[in-house]
Amino acid sequence: MSVKIGNIDLGEFPLLLAPMEDVSDPPFRYVCKKNGADMMYTEFISSEGLIRDAAKSRQKLDIFEYERPIGIQIFGGDIDHMREASEIASAAGPDLVDINYGCPVKNVVCKGAGSSLLQDIDKMVKMTEAVVKASHLPVTVKTRLGWDDNTKNVYEVAERLQDVGIQALTIHGRTRAQLYKGEADWSLIREIKRNPRIKIPIFGNGDVDSPEKAANWSMEYEIDGIMIGRAAIGYPWIFREVKHFFKTGEHLAGPTIEERIEVCRTHLDKSLEWKGPRTGIFEMRRHYANYFKGLPDFKPYRMRLVAEPDINNIYSILEEVAEKFADYDATKVLA
Ligand SMILES: Cc1cc2nc3c(=O)[nH]c(=O)nc-3n(C[C@H](O)[C@H](O)[C@H](O)COP(=O)(O)O)c2cc1C
């Protein structure tokens, strides 16, 4: 059965690309979309930044037709400012607006934003209601299990946020206190799915990094879809591999060297296009190691790629990589 958020049809068991600061920008989203992401989110955008009209926040509102369906994610600690941010984000023309109640980072939490709201559910409910009312689009939420081990309150959160009108909920199976440590635990996510009061789609998130895990956890935890974050960084093929495994029960071969280089280059070109040459080249540097992860003796190439300021020289280094690894079977290198 198709999963729907409002009128947005995501197909059967959709795979979502997670919002990731400094990662889920349009160049990265382009390569994930090409490789099968069914729905994507922007990086989180500060409501304060949007209201101040800060250039950095504004730029993050950029979305493109081919990206649909796409959600703009906002965060903040002040209800009125979140209401305003909801209006600004909706006017940018996404398919939906998402609220971040999951970010564990100190300087977000200390402003009463992100996962901090898990300590004040009444305020979270009011904020959500304000964002829902201020937007003509469906509103979704992404959160964690709770603040810490003693306060895993996402069950109550799910009910109360559904009551004020959210249309889907993504749950990262960790508490705020866990940050990114330990293993994600999805058992509470299954409890929410089994709650007869819950009608909205529930997406599971946290630690999915292989087709097997995606298949096993989809059965075990009964969720409506999966959101993938870190496993897609430098490996956008994860989406098509999971889909292929779902469909056939068999593994799709991993990307060849040529394909790795082609997609890395596309990502680079899109970065230049969207960010301009200087920032585009600079910000692409964090991705090279991931695109070529697992290749033996890749380090010298990476060192050169991350130091090189000239685009034509970067292309030449990528060609050298193609030659050096021409006979290497990269399809068996795991993500
Ligand atoms: C570099 C990075 C940036 C992130 N930025 C955001 C963000 O802007 N908004 C958000 O809701 N979650 C953010 N997250 C959390 C991810 O969306 C996701 O919940 C988390 O990484 C767990 O999923 P995974 O194991 O598939 O990576 C970020 C995670 C990482 C690693």
Strands, total number: 10
Radius of gyration: 20 Å
Strand ordering within the main sheet? 3-4-5-6-7-8-9-10
Classification by helices and strands: alpha/beta
Q: What is the CATH architecture term of the largest domain? A: Alpha-Beta Barrel
What are the distinct ligands in this entry? flavin mononucleotide
What's the story with the biggest beta sheet?
A: 8 strands, parallel, barrel
Question: CATH topology of the largest domain, what is it called?
Answer: TIM Barrel
First-to-last CA distance:
30 Å
Q: Kindly give the count of domains.
A: 2
Order of helices and strands: EEEHEHHEHEHHEHEHEHEHHHHHH
Helix proportion range = 40-55%
What overall geometry do the principal axes of the alpha carbons give?
Answer: globular
Mean pLDDT: 97
Query: What's the CATH class label of the largest domain?
Result: Alpha Beta
Structure in a nutshell:
By secondary structure, the chain is of the alpha/beta class. Helix content is 43%, strand content 15%.
Task: Tell me what you see in this structure.
The protein is built from 15 helices and 10 strands. With 335 residues, the protein is an alpha/beta fold. The protein has 2 domains: 247 residues, Aldolase class I (TIM Barrel, Alpha-Beta Barrel), CATH 3.20.20; 76 residues, Non-ribosomal Peptide Synthetase Peptidyl Carrier Protein, Chain A (Orthogonal Bundle), CATH 1.10.1200. The model has no long low-confidence stretch (mean pLDDT 97). The protein binds flavin mononucleotide. Flavin mononucleotide binds next to strand 4. Keywords: Flavoprotein, FMN, NADP, Nucleotide-binding, Oxidoreductase, RNA-binding, tRNA processing, tRNA-binding.
